[in-house]
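We close this part of the discussion by returning to an individual protein. In the encoding step, the backbone of a single protein was reduced to a row of integers, each denoting a local shape. The sequence in question and its structure tokens are set out directly beneath this paragraph.
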Amino acid sequence: MATVNAATWIGSISVLLWGTLALLTKLSGGDIPEFQLMAMTFGIAFLLMGGRWILAGHTGVRYIRQSPFAWCIGIVGLFGYHFAYFKAMTLAPAVEVSLLAYLWPLLIVLLSALLPDERMRAQSIVGALVALVGCWLLISRNAGGFAWENLPGYLVALACALIWSSYSVLSRLVRSVPTDAVGWFCGVTALLALGCHMLWEETVWPDGLMQWVGVVGLGLGPVGIAFFTWDYGVKHGNIQLLGTLAYSAPLISVVLLILAGYGEATVAVLSASVLIVIGSVIAGRAKHRGAGRQ
């Protein structure tokens, strides 16, 4: 139990770091092409894990040999989620994208019912409906009603939530894969993003210290350490409790965006935030109690 608790708290570090994702993406300038930004940040994450391997006295090559299933989960999860997230940030306002993308904690609770020895509960469904009402308030808050011009961004942000929640739940099925292997997943994702960048984009380097801070911050924090701590947490910790703790990420994200001047603290935004968190907690508590009875 002590090991499970330790893994859960290690995984919770990711929640704090992911709360900075939207702000750091904005600090990076918004002009760097998506594939280039992915290549830069995932490259930094790979180097970060490479530093760990060097300190341990080896090159990390031993962690390359993983099953095709594990590689598929890692690459689709990391590459797919971050490309969709960066793209959504260019298609819709940052606050809306952040809150919609952060529905992934709720989806983790719902999808975890598909894992062995888990089942769906009515309280989880109620929580999902409450959170969806919050999203409706958020994306329809403009005076003119639903902002159809932002619909592509909304859909891509929702795809982010589905991709990352699926990645997290499926990772539970490959818990024997060491967290160090995520370093290689990051490295391959960086190479794939670099190839796409060279084919379809023009290089745009960060302009000024603040944009470099955003890029390096992304690579070290929400695209680096957070991946490694989350992988360890969902594989070895209490995944239901981690899902519940992750519900604080939307509030962290929105508060940081508003403090930095990228969002407005309107009644609609605050109401949507509260409803999303309440709905997520309802679903999370249902799963947590259920796990305790089994």
Remarks:
- The chain has 13 helices and no strands.
